[in-house]
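Table S2 (text version). Query chain:
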Amino acid sequence: MTSEASKKNMLIIDGNSILNRAFFGMPALTNSRGADTGALYGMMTIILPKLEQLSPSFAAVAYDLKAPTFRHKLFDAYKAGRKPMPPPPTLPQKYSLPLYSMALRNRGV
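Corresponding structure-token output:
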């Protein structure tokens, strides 16, 4: 038997869902260089409290593939309720996905 202290858990985060929520839920924020930061700020305000609350042994963020997945083929209405993301250049996270990844990596995700 294992003790409670030796049990490990993992938090898996749906990155696209969180980014979509943060992008549409946050005001247009920018940093001193004019780069869009609203979605990044929103994403971190969603994820960081969960990391603190759950204290997972491991955490990972998964992002959707560009091409349709098997879910799209199985269910025509997959993501039907989700607002479509605006096209570039309005879409800051398309260009700053490495920034999101770096920010999360710095937090151990």
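Notes on Table S2: The helical segments are 15-25, 38-54, 70-74, 92-105. DSSP finds four helices and two strands in the chain.
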